[in-house]
Amino acid sequence: MKPKQTNQITECSRCGTCCLKGGPALHEADRQIIDNGILPLTSLYTIRKGELARDHINGGLVQLPAEILKIKSLKKSTTCMYFNEMDKQCSIYDHRPIECRTLECWNTRAIESMYSRNRLTRKMLLKKVGWLIELVETHESECGLDKIQHLVNDREAGDPGASIDLMQLINYDLHFRNLVMEKGKIALEMLDFLFGRPLSVIISTQFGVKIDKKKPDSF
């Protein structure tokens, strides 16, 4: 991708165009604003390895080779949760993440050079909470996207057992999340950070396998 350069613009006008497209991905340089509580973990979500995500540098959807942590959007919107569309203000502007500080829409060289480097991971942020890391690892082991992909392929090839296994994984994911909230006293708002989107959502949106809402245990 050739870096975008525009002579007419030389500084950010805080128009909010980038904020309307979603929150930034987080990097190691953002660790301090998380540790200081400016960005609580409940404001973050994980796009897991193997999920499809939009590549804002090269365009299009790509299958992630590693997880990405991002700031959540407002409900039923792509807008970053910290951006107020009415007055076009960012509520954490003075402490905004490194991608927001680096992005210059009139010259994208800087953001392109750092976009995929030194990204934060769940393990980095949970380093002092070993039991949560264990839960994340257990969930990844049981509900990894590579496993889902194999089952979807087998299902499309006509294997009747694959549909059963997929439904069992969806139910496992749901039960796992509920158990973590109940036994671990973890807030609902933390689950998207800890375990990413529910498998029922990923299987439907990424793999096109629709769940019958009238019969939750079937496709």
Explain the layout of strands and helices.
Elements: H1 17-20, H2 31-35, E1 44-47, E2 52-54, E3 61-63, E4 68-71, E5 83-84, E6 89-90, H3 98-102, H4 109-114, H5 122-125, H6 130-143, H7 145-156, H8 160-184, H9 191-195, H10 199-205
Antiparallel strand pairs: 1-4, 2-3, 5-6
Helix pairs in contact: 6-8, 7-8
In brief:
The chain is mainly α and 219 residues long. Helix content is 40%, strand content 8%.
Provide a descriptive summary of the structure in words.
It is a single chain. The longest helix is centred in the C-terminal third of the chain and has 25 residues, at 160-184. The protein starts with 16 loop residues before the first helix and ends in a 14-residue tail after the last helix. A two-stranded antiparallel sheet has the order 1-4. Strand 5 (83-84) and strand 6 (89-90) form a beta hairpin. The model has no long low-confidence stretch (mean pLDDT 91). It has 219 residues and is mainly alpha-helical. The protein folds into 2 domains: 19-122, no CATH class; 129-207, no CATH class. It contains 10 helices and 6 strands.
- Beta-strand percentage range: 5-15%
How many domain regions?
2
The pLDDT mean sits at 91
Rg computed from alpha carbons, rounded to a whole number of angstroms: 19 Å
Q: What oligomeric arrangement do these chains adopt?
A: single chain
How many DSSP H or I helices?
10
Identify the strand order in the major beta sheet. Answer: 1-4
Helix content: 25-40%
Which stretches of 5+ consecutive residues score pLDDT under 50? none
Largest sheet: 2 strands, antiparallel
